[in-house]
Amino acid sequence: MLLYYITDRHSLDRDVVDTVAEALVAGVDLIQIREKDLSPRELFVLAQRVKELPNPGGSRILLNERLDIAVAAGLDGVHLPSSHLPIRELRETAGRPITVGVSCHSDAEVRAANDEGADLIAFSPVFAPLSKSSHIQPHGLVVLESICATSSTPVFALGGVTANRIHDCLEAGAAGVAGISLFQSSHELTTLVSNIRDKPLSSP
To answer: What CATH number is given to the structural domain containing 21?
Structure first.
């Protein structure tokens, strides 16, 4: 099971870099810096600060959309909306191996991400989102299971995922779970991740 933390500094009561630092030490597998309102310069500074953090588990760090800044800061890759395909051209532009994640909200978008060679898919919303509003109705576990069964790319369940719902998402075939609130609502992130790892398939 893989854990994927998506940042939102506006819902934190401390520096987002401190939370990312804790997530890295806790062993979260992927971290997406998703701070859309920052200027390019501010985003680059933030990416640099994150890149300099201790990363004992080799967690992959992705930047939302901005390939140029991700490459300049030495991050592992980018996470894109489905509208930002094609991926092949992005890989060529990067000039080095990168991880590319894609947000998908439908079966058609998942198929496109597979065809383009995405490394991972964040499929949402599985449940009603906890951190932000969405005009898309929650897909539910039945749709998630169908998506996971037909996708050759690892699928992460995103949207309304709580610790008590992780088991159901994994049973539906998800490679892991992604979220903002799942990680940022805990003041003991290391303990949370440890508990999830210890009992990934325990019933809620």
So the answer is: 3.20.20.70
Domain that holds residue 120: 2-198
**Taking the model in full, what pTM does it have?**
0.93
At residue 197 the predicted structure's pLDDT band, cuts being 50, 70 and 90, is confident
Asked if residue 204 belongs to a domain, the reply is: no
Residue 203 lies in a domain: no
Q: 154, 120 in Cβ contact below 8 A?
A: yes
Number of separate domains in the chain: 1
Kindly report, residue by residue over 127-158, the tens digit of the pLDDT: 998 766 667 899 999 999 999 999 999 999 99
Q: Taking the CB of residue 75, how many other CB atoms lie within 10 A of it?
A: 23
The per-residue pLDDT for 130 is: 76
Report the sign of the C-alpha dihedral through residues 73, 3, 185, 196, in that order: negative
Alpha-carbon span 202 to 26, nearest angstrom: 20
